[in-house]
Write a structure and sequence with these properties.
Layout lengths: L1 H10 L17 E2 L5 E5 L7 H4 L7 H12 L20 E5 L12 H17 L6 E5 L1 H10 L12 E4 L4 E6 L4 H5 L5 H15 L13
Helix pairs in contact: 3-7
Length: 214
């Protein structure tokens, strides 16, 4: 993945040909005492891999940051560069893998190699994190694997209450351009995920079963 990230940085997309690409593993971003943890797939080749900040400078980032802003987790609705003044409150953004993978399809070994970082972030947020939003099946499976959670099925807007951790896991389709342009994921479907997360964090929605499916 590192080789691919560097290659993208050398070749560059035409509209970004005059920009310097980050072209290496992309750090995660957000509030270190977050109540909401959002897990994506990987940095986009011409998004996070270009800008050096996860969910920044691409269409997926546009959808995510707008949703976070509308539900009170971000101070502004756009994410275009590392120095754009974006601040997240009670939200933290991470991914199953840290480098842009070819065709957005990381291998099992690449996901496994990056899982140590996800494990450490989960530990850091352990005392404050209440809701995890997993964007896409790869992110959903990555979270379940590192937390040794078995038997859960991925599906958009499935909500699982993990009783032993006192946390809630919400599955969502990834806001990739393919999903949004085909209306597999609509804005109403998308924003409802974050409204649910906000409601749970605010104590307005409670799930008491071991695994409650919405």
């Amino acid at each position: 993945m590192i080789k691919y990230s560097q290659e993208v940085g050398r070749i560059k997309k035409k509209e970004f040909k005059n920009q310097n690409y980050w072209a290496k593993p992309v750090p995660t971003f957000g509030d270190s005492k977050a109540k909401l943890l959002v897990i994506g797939l990987a940095p986009a080749a011409n998004g996070g891999n270009r800008t050096g900040r996860i969910f920044t400078g691409d269409s997926s980032g546009d959808w995510l940051i707008r949703a976070l802003f509308e539900t009170g987790f971000a101070n502004k609705p756009i994410s275009v560069s590392k120095d754009d003044g974006l601040i997240l409150k009670d939200a933290y953004l991470t991914a199953a893998v840290r480098c842009a993978p070819p065709l957005n399809k990381p291998t099992r070994s690449e996901i496994s190699n990056c899982s140590q970082y996800l494990i450490e972030e989960i530990k850091i947020l352990e005392k404050t994190n209440k809701v995890i939003v997993a964007l896409g099946k790869i992110a959903f499976d990555a979270y379940c694997n590192v937390c040794n959670i078995k038997g859960l099925k991925f599906g958009h807007n499935k909500v699982y209450s993990i009783y032993n951790d006192n946390k809630t896991l919400i599955a969502s389709y990834h806001p990739s351009r393919r999903n949004t342009s085909t209306h597999t994921l609509t804005w109403l479907m998308w924003i409802d995920i974050f409204k649910t997360a906000r409601s749970i964090i605010n104590g307005q929605t409670k799930l008491n079963d071991k695994y409650s499916v919405s």
